Amino acid sequence: MASVSLLRRARGYVPWSAAPWRDTAFAASGVPLQFGAWAVLIAPWAIWEPVRAVPVLIALLAPVLVVAVLAHPLASAHRERCWAMLGLHVPPPEERPGRFRTEGYWRVLAYHLLAGPVLAFGAMAVIVAWAGGAALAGVGAYAWALPPLTAFQVAAFSMGGVALLLAAPWLAMAVRNMDARAVVVLLGPDRARELERRVEDLAEKRAGVVDAADIERRRIERDLHDGAQQRLVALAMNLGLARETLTGVPDDAMRVIVEAHEEAKEALAEMRDLIRGLHPAVLEDRGLDAALSGIAARVPLPVRLRVDVPRRASSTVEAVAYFVVSEALTNVVRHARASKVEIEVTRRGDVLSVSVADDGAGGADPSKGSGLTGLGRRVRSVDGTFRIVSPEGGPTTVTVELPCVL
């Protein structure tokens, strides 16, 4: 398979195919532009011989200023050449204030003063290979006009010319590849800076998605709290009132009322837990200390809570911290067989640290698909770090650090 591909590629670079002539034309078209900067720098000395200090200074500085001004137009011409002849689109580097001091500008100068001339000599070598190969290959046709040559010499010159003609397409391809690569690297956007910009853009978009999801959770929480929960409260109260006041009701009907009342109370409790899980209102109103105190009070274990947050973080970060503690406590109650839990939430600078430690059996492993896996994803969604230490036999410590710059 590889040999077939190589054979097809070789067929595309024989002298009579179109690709070598396109590559040669592309390489040759760059020669005037690639020598342009040096031509400007050398021109004053070729046409003028300054002898005094001021003329010498002018002859030195004026060409430099001209090259500085023409650097970007020449670069644009090279990019247009790539598009017109190769179909290669090279966007210009991002312009910034003080463009003569930017890294992109120095890359443009590096092309004009270093890479460009080298590529121009390569293009000239391609032209010489074509011209010299054709001249040597056809030496037998005009040998009569040359000094006497033996048949062996004519044959040797002809074979050398054929070899040059066969090598010229590959040389043209190599020069074309190097030229196109140099244009992309030196005259196009800085790849590292472009990747950095894309990473920043993706981070901003992800932060926007996270914030939007948090806003949507709060909206659903308000809708459930003000709508469905109030209806359930009214239903439970009416059923409780009926249960307490109705007399003379058949036992079967009363049993139905009692069961409906109990179901309504359970549904109301589940609704409150659901609302609290979406986004507790106390978190938004009173902050982490009050919200975490409410969680700790509902845990059937002794909980030592310490919250030291001088400045509140964003609502998104606070929500992540709240759910870290909530999920960690749920896991402790369900799986750890612990006798106590310690929670510490502190803010130092722009980092909010959350630590939940228990003295349980240990052995918690996020890779087994527990709720800790989703918790880790939620922490990483705001560029936080999630770490759990849980050897067999305990204790277990969940540590989370959240950036507060969101």
Architecture overview:
With 406 residues, the chain is α+β, with helices and mostly antiparallel strands. The protein has three domains: 2-189, no CATH class; 214-278; 286-403, 2-Layer Sandwich (Heat Shock Protein 90), CATH 3.30.565. The chain contains 13 helices and five strands. The protein has helices spanning 2-11, 18-29, 31-34, 36-47, 53-86, 103-137, 151-187, 191-245, 251-278, 281-286, 288-298, 315-336, 371-380, and strands at 303-308, 341-348, 351-358, 385-389, 396-403. Strands 1-2-3-5-4 form a five-stranded mixed beta sheet, with helices on one face. β1, α12 and β2 (341-348) form a beta-alpha-beta unit. Mean pLDDT is 80; it is low at 1-7. It catalyses: ATP + protein L-histidine = ADP + protein N-phospho-L-histidine.
Which secondary structure elements does this structure contain, and how are they paired or packed?
Blueprint: H1 2-11, H2 18-29, H3 31-34, H4 36-47, H5 53-86, H6 103-137, H7 151-187, H8 191-245, H9 251-278, H10 281-286, H11 288-298, E1 303-308, H12 315-336, E2 341-348, E3 351-358, H13 371-380, E4 385-389, E5 396-403
Parallel strand pairs: 1-2
Antiparallel strand pairs: 2-3, 3-5, 4-5
InterPro entries: HATPase_C_sf, HATPase_dom, Sensor_HK_TwoCompSys, Sig_transdc_His_kin_sub3_dim/P
Pfam families: HATPase_c (PF02518), HisKA_3 (PF07730)
Transmembrane segments: 25-47, 53-75, 109-131, 151-172
